[in-house]
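## retry 2 of 3
previous attempt timed out at serialization; input unchanged, resubmitting
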Amino acid sequence: MQIANPIYDVVFKYLMQNNEIATLILSTILEQEILSLDLLPQETAVALEKRTFIVYRLDFSALIKTSAGEEKHVVIEIQKAKFAADIMRFRRYLGEQYKKAFPVEGEKAPQATPIISIYFLGYRLDHVAAPVIKVLRRYYDAATGEEIPDREEFIESLTHDSFVIQIPQLGPERRTATERLLAVFDQHRKVEGDRHVLDIDEEAYPEAYRKVVRWLNGAVSEPQIRRTMEVEDEILAELEDIERRMVGMEKALEEKDQIIGEKDRALAEKDRLIAELRGSR
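## retry succeeded, writing output
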């Protein structure tokens, strides 16, 4: 079965706007039951060399049930990155999230709701090969080193858990439920000559996950989605060209600085020799 490639923003957004599928994906990644989920769409217009395109930031307000059986409201933010330089965008956006207060059912005023970040990376990290990385906080008594099981609103509101998914590291080895579900992102399944489409064996997926495959299969025949993927390719090529030019400029500046440094050292050596000659007269 052929499916639209969810590494593209337009397909990813199409996927996550289906509440049932978004709930399945997020609950599988978080390994926690999601009792309710509401999409809080964010989009920003970005100008790029006479062109404007939209960057989608997906935020969800969720009621989850913890492993201890407690219910709590959280904000789940999802971001995708194609370049390592996107880390600065993540930091700025996370700062914006901490400034916000979100409405919570049953509360009169918006609350400083805990944040869970999920990052889908289109590139490999330098040192960690695991396709799915969990960064989970723990409380410890600094004196004894013992873990503290209780949770405090103050700490929960100022720190957050994160999940990092390296899309290029997803492959045939599917050790967990999360890796089995996220196999729909496996870029090794690209159709030859058309990177917009992945060739998926639906029978290889557990029945509970096949709804994701079928939903993405529907996106293949959507002309608007196809056209938007082509635009994303063009924009990505422009961004890569800009990045290459910036690297070239940085290299040129480094070489210029090196030449200036060598010139300064030569002048200093010349001054030293002149001083020695004068001293020997």
